[in-house]
Write a structure and sequence with these properties.
Oligomer: heterodimer
Number of strands of chain A: 11
Largest interface: A-B, 29 and 30 residues
Structural class of chain B: mainly beta
Largest sheet of chain B: 6 strands, mixed
Largest sheet of chain A: 7 strands, mixed
Radius of gyration of chain A: 13 Å
Helix content of chain A: under 10%
Number of strands of chain B: 12
Distance between the termini of chain B: 40 Å
Strand content of chain B: over 45%
Helix content of chain B: under 10%
Order of helices and strands of chain A: EEEEEEEEEEE
Distance between the termini of chain A: 37 Å
Number of helices of chain A: 0
Structural class of chain A: mainly beta
Chain lengths: 114, 115
């Protein structure tokens, strides 16, 4: 079974703090993704990576950055957290670039920025 | 703009009722289509997917979906829902293009099944 794990289920931070969200997958997947999930908005793609040290912007990259130093790990960074970044953050991975590859999701990190 | 629409935001059904959740998309080219489900407190998981062949796709737990290319639709169906189907359902579209396999999600439909 593919397993995607995220470092925290719940996180509370203060405005202006630097926040790291970690994601690890154990199936040697090429692609990794970060989404945020908000009520009424569904999932929106923040960043994705299709190889180590490679990253691409998604639909809403502003205020975020990412790091992929190892194939299995994909980190999302909030350089200076703001209250509008309070959300559920989901990490996902997929095997390769074939269009039929499904994405496997982690349990999510619910981030609250005070 | 390219988009994925789920018109039903919240659906409430009694057990044994039939279910149909709508999904329409606006991408012009070839697409791959997915339905994901998120049970309360759990992570998103794949219900079913379509990428070619028979437009009627069967998934887990008795769900099925039909791809109608002329209508740009991929509606999810189940003939008889159970209380355990209470969850949020997301339709997602992956334009079939080289370079990435990004998913574009709808806003989700919350299904509540009353025992």
């Amino acid at each position: 079974d593919v397993k995607v794990t995220q470092s925290s289920r719940y996180l509370v931070k203060r405005t202006g703090e630097k926040v790291f969200l970690e994601c690890v997958q154990d199936m040697d997947h090429e692609n990794m993704f970060w989404y945020r999930q908000d009520p009424g908005l569904g999932l929106r793609l923040i960043y994705f990576s299709y190889d180590v040290k490679m990253k691409e912007k998604g639909d809403i990259p502003e205020g975020y950055s990412v790091s992929r130093e190892k194939k299995e790990r994909f980190s999302l960074i909030l350089e200076s957290a703001s209250t509008n970044q309070t959300s559920m953050y989901l990490c996902a991975s997929s095997l390769g670039l074939a269009g039929s590859d499904e994405q496997f999701f982690g349990p999510g990190t619910r981030l609250t920025v005070l | 703009a390219q988009s994925v629409s789920q018109h039903n935001h919240h659906v409430i059904l009694s057990e044994a009722a039939s279910l149909e959740l709508g999904c329409n998309y606006s991408y012009g080219g070839t697409v791959n289509l997915f339905w994901y489900v998120q049970y309360p407190g759990q992570h998103l998981q794949l219900l079913l997917k379509y990428f070619s062949g028979d437009p009627l796709v069967k998934g887990i737990k008795g769900f099925e979906a039909e791809f109608i290319k002329s209508k740009f639709s991929f509606n999810l169906r189940k003939p008889s829902v159970q209380w355990s189907d209470t969850a949020e359902y997301f339709c997602a579209v992956m334009p079939d293009q080289t370079g990435a396999n990004n998913l574009f999600f709808g806003t989700g439909t919350r299904l509540t099944v009353i025992p």
